């Protein structure tokens, strides 16, 4: 299995797109099913955001200072997703705003993922060696073990609280 950081993150993005499609294809009245899909979306996003925030972004920021502005914009986009995830996590699928909030989350994350894949990853691939990307990837595989899986877990919650009170 490849430990290339970009390959790993792209795999996560693929899984997100699959979950987004599931939600979009679910019937309007499939409340319970949509609730379960959103639970999966929140878990996938919580883990992925953690790996990028704790490893990929700081590593790239340090190794490729020219990409700093992109990294800072990404932190802000993650923050928006974190807030939406935390709100959705506290909601019931029957809530009248549940579907609308999920749709906005999907739109935001889709935009962010497209920017990463079309613009940011190519720059990172160009700037870093294969070995550097494999080392970052190996660290992310390790980090995944202890990554928070829901917004209620301490590290994810702290992140959201810090973002709101900053
Ligand atoms: Fe990201
Ligand atoms: Fe990403």
From TrEMBL:
Pfam families: Hemerythrin. It comes from the Bacteria. InterPro entries: Hemerythrin-like. Residues 5-124 form the Hemerythrin-like domain. Coiled coil: none annotated. Residues 144-166 are annotated as: Disordered. Gene3D superfamilies: nmb1532 protein domain like. This is Hemerythrin. It comes from Actinoplanes nipponensis.
